[in-house]
Fold this protein.
Amino acid sequence: MPACERERWSLRNTLSHRNVMADKHNAEESRVSELLRQCRQQKRSAQHQLFQIFYNYAMSIARRYVGSIETAEEVVSDAFFKAFTKINLYEESLSFRFWLRRIVINTAIDRLRSALQTRESEPWNGQYDAPVESSVVEDLTREQILATLDRLPPAYRTVFNLFVVDGYTHEEIAQLLGISTGTSKSNLSRARQHLRALFSDDFEFKK
């Protein structure tokens, strides 16, 4: 096959794949929208289907924050209960996935509230902010980071999740956890230091 024909064939396949994925995405969105409409009518079958669709997604979030699968399952159950009882507050202009993510995170933090009030929450003094520490996230894969989060103290793990994984600002974290922005920065730096220590024997970091 001539090179020009191979290019056209590759382009057609690429466009075809994109169209298939777009159609699949639109179909899923339509299904979720219909299930949400039925959930507003308190239809249990729709709630059950929506739970099945988003269960793994919700578990992946809860598991990052809490220390065990059993606790994560409890968090997810509580989060879906809140979502279904407050479904009329959901605005369709917002992605349901994003709305649910916020509920799961808040539910997990509520479960961890007492554990977060520990001596690990110390004011930020900048001593852990050396440039070598700030590159720790780039040095690790996502899987490596998530595999070690359970080994971090709750206060460090929570701030790390909120800032690095879920994209909250330190100001938002401070408001959510009832701490100062300085404490949020300190806990993030300490979490990075702990991660570096955990991986120092197995992985080579950038200098």
